[in-house]
Amino acid sequence: MKWNLFNSSIGIALGGGAARGIAHIGVLKAFEEGNIPISFISGTSIGALVASYYAFGKSIEDIKDIGEGLNITSVIGLSLHKKGMFSTRSIETMILKDLGNVNIEDANIPLAICTTNISTGEQVILRHGNLAKAVCASTAIPGIFIPIEIENKTLVDGGITENVPISLLDKMGAGITIGVNLNGSQNYSPPKDIIAIMGNAIDIAIDLRTKDQLKKADLTLSLELEHYSRLDNSKQFDDLYNEGYELAQRKIKKIFWYRRIRFAFYLKKLYLAIAPFKVPNIFTWWRTSD
Predict the structure, then answer these.
(1) Cα 71 to Cα 73: distance, rounded to the nearest angstrom
(2) CB 185 within 8 A of CB 224
(3) Could you tell me which residues are beta bridge partners of residue 154?
(4) pLDDT digits (tens, 9 = 90+) for 178-191
(5) Residue 96 has pLDDT above 50, yes or no
(6) Of 194 and 101, more confident
(7) What is the pTM of this model?
(8) What pLDDT, in 10s, does the model give residues 138-176?
(9) Which ranges in the chain belong to alpha helices (H)?
(10) What phi and psi, each to the nearest 5 degrees, are found at residue 15?
(11) What distance in Å separates the CA atoms of residue 185 and residue 61, rounded to the nearest whole number?
């Protein structure tokens, strides 16, 4: 929350989670039906892809149609490059076809994309420059996808540094920040192969960091999607879409109440900033799932 009591603009951060990102579409649909305008949007990995389509004016139905055709074979290209087994060329081609050769700063809704500099470990926030390249960088899982070179930086998946990029929204000027976490469950599916083992290991490491980062959000939508695949949910598309839609519908009423009692949250933030000692966070329940 920014230091402006009267700033009620809403920013939403869409987290990474590979094929589970279908749930993001359902979340956005619920916000539209609830007449809650999104003033700022950020994304990591699959969240960056969905956020980009939404920020550039694609309708929910259009995004659903595109999402139904996505699976692991449609978004990767085999590569013999020494820095990765696969390329993100298919993702780049898809974005160029659907949205054109556009820049991030041209979006209808201010957009930020989270990536990681694999040479330094630093978070790199992209708010300007070629959209397709930025999304490819944010989705480039290191060791699997070839990193993307942007402005002499070697960029990979933003999930390494901030899987639900809530901090980007504060920097953009959002008054109320909402994070959508696709990995809200602390339970992980029993791995059946090496890919699943690697996936679980990555999820565990990222989730530990995400838990702390999401404390900065005013509201968190945490989805328990461990029963869905990271690679292909085309046969469960509607179920996964409804997971996001139904949770967001339940949470929307909290946003209205948040606006009504915003003054209380503002005083709490002010007190925490000047208090010489740590006080219990009695407002934690606003950030947890129903």
Answers:
(1) 6
(2) yes
(3) 149
(4) 999 998 877 777 78
(5) yes
(6) 101
(7) 0.85
(8) 999 888 899 999 999 999 999 999 999 999 998 999 988
(9) 22-33, 46-55, 60-68, 72-75, 89-99, 131-139, 159-162, 166-172, 194-213, 237-260, 262-274
(10) -85, 170
(11) 28
